[in-house]
Design brief:
The structure holds two protein chains of two kinds. Chain A contains twelve helices and 14 strands. In chain A, the strands form three sheets. Chain A has a seven-stranded mixed β-sheet with strand order 3-2-4-5-7-6-12, with helices on both faces. Chain A has a five-stranded mixed β-sheet with strand order 9-11-10-13-14, with helices on both faces. The longest helix of chain A is centred in the first third of the chain and has 15 residues. Chain B is α/β, with parallel strands linked by helices. Chain B has two domains: 321 residues, Rossmann fold, CATH 3.40.50; 54 residues, no CATH class. Chain B contains 13 helices and eight strands. In chain B, helix 1 packs across helix 11 and helix 2 crosses helix 8. The chains are: A alpha/beta, B alpha/beta. At the A-B interface, helix 3, helix 4, helix 5, helix 9 and helix 10 of A face helix 5, helix 6, helix 12 and helix 13 of B.
């Protein structure tokens, strides 16, 4: 099986989707001949022509407005927003249009063919505007699906599923892992399910939940915890909307403890949603309060990035405190 | 880009450009001297006029119904029928229309039935939109009319994208998008025109410059000479027309469509018109404009102008006019009675179509809602009737865990 980094896996997924269906069209800022600032769309224009892979003007609201219309027409657009930090000019098109197209028309029209790819997250010395994790703004929007892969294998399978999904998907790519995460990825076509979490490690003392790049950080914290004899169950949510509460609840009924971690700020973050749901469903089984290990309620910092970051030590401390509660 | 160097500073304002207004028919229904009649056949002209008059009558009746409290909200097209229907009549019936909200005339022209209008206005079980949107948010897949969305200008870049898909599909169709001069201030407008020009897309941007965005007059909306000059910034074909002159609108749109479809080039049309009625049933223009101003525009009534021309050509008669007015008024009233008596859409339309399939989390919320309604049926409009009686009344989150 070939080894790929996450960018190669994403590029490979786009290649497969475009080869299979001529309605698949990739566009965004610098997506054309340059192949995107991260090279996720490398060689796609050469292979499939300028009509199906192209640069757009620098206008995020236009990119998503255009993508909505193209999807409504029956094409399968894969629109790139260069950084998740710059998705906000398109917020209206995503929240009021993409997400509501099917509902408001009584299913006369839909933009289910649309996938929006965008790199998110910190750890690359990107400061306020190249580091944000804006997922919670979108998980508050019925009609959207929000998917975040943790490694190259997941990225390819989930992106192919997103492109073929009958609903619009916001596909958030952990850019810190674009080249850092390398693994075996099948050459052939495969899909991974949207809306299903994955238990990536079983354990009995505590449940850890995360997604995307944070899974690697959780992994390091778990190593520290297991050295101390704490056995951890680790769940990658993979989809934040819809999210797989059943898998998390089932795990917490067993372990009685839960730590959720994300890079985004604490207040209003998606960990709050998970904590609320799990306490409703597992109240009598909880041995300790559900803990959230997240970024601070500040804009994303630059020189103090390491201090801000919900790193493995902060997660390890939360595990220790939960177990000793 | 061409760079031509000069060695003295010169500033330009755009006043160097002057954009004329294309007009064919004067308010008395006579051709201006030097103007030519467009290639509009008798039957086509009758279909067009029929739609204009029908829209006028539908608007009058529904506004009255709103005032009687039978309808929650309404928006009239009055004064803009020539702009909306004249342009629609110049399209192929399979071209896509992405409208703003005041373009019911386009649907009327394409054959949306009075029943279909009423079902949407009353949000009953036959409404294609399943009672989810306020009145006048029509949509029709079979008539290639995109469902209306309240946020302004969002349809404009979507029209660019839709038309790009049409170009790739090679189906020979284009997209026409309607918007007001107020909506043209939104960023989406600029994004849409720029992208359409850059990507050579068969789309017609049709601006209804009707003078007002609710209460804000055009002079407080932009400093330039209307919307048309913006096309130059995007290197786009543009024409300004008398929006109350149906022949000018028809001719301009027909030519625009040719440019769009044959050359894959976008076109901007600015139709100069006037919103004779209030913005909506919730608005009262007496607070921001003079009756005398409205009166001057009433003299330019687009329906009357076309009627005069039709009568002169012998393509329409006073008898037909009276007959259509009477039968249509009766049809609207009868249809309205039927539509308002029809039941609402079923309760499960609350949760369907959010996604292609109801998600497990939403199903859980819906089951919970149904058991709640079962407990308090009298508190909800449709009570027990709306319930699926198989629902388990006692669902507790703990049990589901």
């Amino acid at each position: 099986m070939p080894t790929m980094n996450m960018l190669q896996a994403i590029n490979n997924a786009l290649d497969i989707a475009m080869a299979e269906d001529e309605k698949v069209i990739c566009f965004g800022e610098d997506v054309g001949i340059f192949g995107g600032v991260f090279r996720a769309t490398s060689h796609l224009q050469e292979k499939y022509g300028k009509a199906r892979c192209f640069n757009t003007p620098l206008v995020e609201q236009g990119i998503i407005g255009f993508a909505n219309g193209l999807a409504a027409q029956g094409s399968v657009p894969v629109a790139e927003i260069q950084f998740a930090d710059y998705i906000f000019p398109a917020f209206d098109q995503i929240v009021n249009e993409t997400a509501k197209y099917r509902y408001r028309s009584g299913d006369l029209f839909n933009v289910g063919g649309l996938t929006i790819r965008t790199p998110y997250g910190g750890g690359i010395a990107g400061g306020l505007y190249h580091s944000q994790s804006p997922e919670a703004y979108f998980t508050h929007t019925p009609g959207l699906k929000v998917v975040v892969p943790r490694n190259p294998y997941q990225a390819k399978g989930l992106l192919l599923a997103a492109i073929r999904d009958p609903d619009p998907v916001l596909f958030m790519e952990p850019k810190r892992l674009y080249r850092a995460s390398v693994g075996e990825v099948p050459e052939e076509d495969y899909q991974l399910p949207i809306g299903e979490a994955e238990v990536i490690k079983e354990g009995s003392d505590i449940t850890l939940v995360g997604w995307g790049a944070q899974m690697e950080v959780i992994g390091k914290a778990v190593e520290l915890a297991e050295e101390q004899g704490i056995t951890c169950e680790v769940i990658d949510l993979r989809s934040l909307l819809p999210w797989d509460a059943d898998t998390v609840a089932e795990s917490v009924l067993k372990t009685g403890r839960l730590v959720v971690s994300h890079e985004a700020p604490l207040t209003g973050g998606f960990a709050g949603e998970i904590a609320a749901t799990i306490q409703e469903r597992c109240f009598l089984y909880l041995e300790s309060p559900i803990r959230r290990v997240t970024g601070l309620d500040t804009p994303f910092p630059l020189v103090l990035e390491k201090e801000y970051f919900p790193d493995h030590l902060k997660i390890f401390e939360a595990i220790r405190e939960s177990v000793n509660f | 880009m061409m760079t031509h160097y000069v060695h003295q500073p010169t500033f330009m304002t755009g006043d160097e450009l002057s954009i004329d207004t294309f007009s064919v028919l004067d308010p008395e229904g006579e051709l201006y001297s030097g103007a030519e009649e467009p290639a509009l056949e008798r039957d086509h002209a009758r279909r067009l006029y029929h739609a204009m008059l029908s829209t006028r009558i539908l608007d009058e009746r529904m506004m009255a119904a709103q005032r009687q409290g039978r309808l929650s909200f309404y928006m009239q097209c009055v004064g803009e029928e020539a702009a909306v229907i004249g342009s629609t009549a110049a399209l192929s019936d399979t071209d896509m229309i992405m409208a703003q909200y005041r373009e019911q005339g386009a649907l009327m022209y394409r054959g949306f039935s009075i029943d279909e209008f009423m079902n949407q206005l009353f949000g009953n079980e036959l409404d294609y939109g399943k009672g989810r949107q306020m009145p006048v948010h029509y949509g029709s897949r079979k008539l290639h009319y995109m469902t209306i969305s309240s946020p302004l200008a969002t349809q404009i870049p979507q029209a660019t994208g839709y038309a790009y898909g049409q170009k790739l599909a090679g189906d020979g169709n284009c997209t026409l998008t309607f918007f007001g001069e107020g909506a043209a201030s939104e960023g989406d407008f600029h994004a849409a025109l720029n992208m359409a020009s850059v990507h050579k897309v068969p789309v017609i941007f049709f601006c209804r410059n009707n003078g007002y965005a609710i209460s804000t007059p055009a002079v407080e909306q932009f400093a330039a000479d209307g919307i048309a000059p913006r096309a130059f910034g995007y290197h786009m074909h543009v024409i300004r027309v008398d929006g109350n002159d149906v022949l000018a609108v028809f001719e301009a749109t027909q030519r625009a469509r040719k440019i769009a479809v044959e050359q894959n080039q976008p076109v901007l049309i600015e139709a100069m018109t006037y919103r004779l009625a209030a913005h909506s049933s919730s608005d009262d223009p007496s607070g921001y404009r003079l009756k005398s101003e409205e009166e001057t525009w009433r003299l330019k009534d687009p329906v009357l102008r076309m009627q005069k021309w039709m009568l002169k050509k012998g393509w329409w008669s006073e008898e037909e006019e009276t007959h259509l007015q009477e039968t249509l008024r009766r049809e609207v009233l009868e249809t309205m009675k039927r539509a308002e008596k029809r039941p609402s859409p079923p309760l499960d339309s609350l949760v369907s179509d959010v996604y292609a399939d109801v998600t497990p989390a939403l199903q859980r919320q819906f089951d919970h809602l149904k058991s709640h309604i079962r407990r308090y049926p009298e508190a909800y409009p449709r009570g027990m009737q709306s319930l699926d009686l198989d629902v388990d009344a006692a669902t507790s989150p703990q049990e589901d865990a």
